[in-house]
User: Fold this.
Amino acid sequence: MSRKSFYTLVGLAAVAAISVFGVKNDFGLGRNMEMMINLMRAVSTEYVDTLSADKIMRHGADGIMRNLDPYCTFLLEEEMKDFRTLTTGKYGGIGSVIRQDSSAVRIAEPYKGSPADLAGLKIGDRIVAIDGKSIAGMKTDQVSSMLRGEPNTTVKVSVERLLDGKVTTHKIRRQRISIPSVSYADYVAPGVGYILHSDFTDDCYTEMRAAIKRLQAKGELKGLILDYRTNGGGVLQSAVKVLSLFVPKGTQVVEMRGRVAAENKTFKTEFEPLLPDLPLVVLIGENSASAAEIVSGALQDLDRAVLLGSRSYGKGLVQSTLPLGYESYAKITTAKYYIPSGRCIQAVRYSTDGKAESVPDSLITEFKTAAGRKVYDGGGIMPDKRVAPDYVSSFAVTLYLMGVMDDFGDEYYRAHPDITIDPKTFSITDEDYAAFAKMVEARDVPYKSESRRAVEKLRKSLESERYAAADIAEAMAVIESRLKDDKMSNLQTYKSEIIRTINADIALRYCYAEGRTASGLKYDKGIEAAVAMLADSVEMSRILREHDTARK
Assistant:
């Protein structure tokens, strides 16, 4: 933006502030807007170094949003594209996730049937150039931006193939890529269907309905598990539509209440239910948020489903995107939502300076479900029955973040390019795991167990407090020597969970995303508990009639 344009914009903003806020008689807001404009003018013209007017605006907007809540942001048009992708699940591109390792940007996951998949790009292929331009030194966000574009435009992608090291160039026609919100749907026990619902996009109701129909076509559906443990939310209206699959038409499922009257809305289901009476179990966890909490919380309040897992995230705030002009937008919190019992499950309060604090116990209020069961606000959705999440060691997480699993998966695929696997039963052999261990042994793994860190902290505390007597030092040395957190011992200690992660990575390579999910089903304690619950109709009935949830 030129300085002349900046002054024009400032002048127009000043006139708008005077006219708009003068009419509304909001002197304070009008005064502060004028002060902000004058501040921007002063910084732009008087600061010792030349500054971009756009940058000044950005910093000012970010400062305002930072002192509200974490969901309020200032967005420019380019950033709005990512926001629209999150809410719609659609974008223009080749349809592949990419990843970065120490030396390259690689194909990480081509979506099944996508342009990248049809072009023959494989997991592990190294991207060399895009449209003839080398991507050496580029980060994944830069490469992703080059791969995306308007549907029906073409892009030339040159890759070094994982299997043979040859460099090939693929002319790929971009398409509108739709990221499925229903990631997986299949039977996990006789008569028991399982649906992994990842997010609430515009099309998720259609996807969910289609998934249920597919299950019914495979056999008699006697019970259904909905998995929202990794669902971070999305479009509120889509949550209402999904609820219409399970509760009577015209049921009030959520209410919005805001400062502005226009934000006060009540939402009722608009369609006849597809499964009005089918036994339901819903899996929730700490990553279940927003629209996922609306669905799970409404099903709990209406005594329609038994919830298993752990406490949900607790996001009861609604954001609206407001245009600001000049291709800029403000995403701000405009309302809170309330589920059928009348409770708001927002777990954190935000002060005027953006600081967060948990809702104190003294303000937690009791509500009642349709059947009179006690439920509570102020702390997310509490499950009807707790199921501890599967434990994943920090050592296994460290290996995953280092990309060791990816590298081993690359080597495995090189050695077995043409095999067919069943992801539900596949597992690497002991010989395969020994090869993985050898790969880990050759690398520097920045990992210390919690026990070793605690002992080291104790030793430093003793030293700082001058407890350096020989007998104490000797005792500490003995304790440290007996702690076995070296790489090779950890590979044996956490072998089972490391193998599960490796199996999932390999299943992804041969069977796409569905294979990765299917690979983990047999280890999932939440699914196991849900199947057991659906098999116990007496216990399900008791919970839905009389079981109260915990306060927090």
In short: The two ends are 51 Å apart (CA to CA). Residues 1-24 have pLDDT under 50 and may be disordered. The chain has four domains: 3-66, 90-178, 182-320+334-389, 394-529. The longest helix spans residues 495-520.
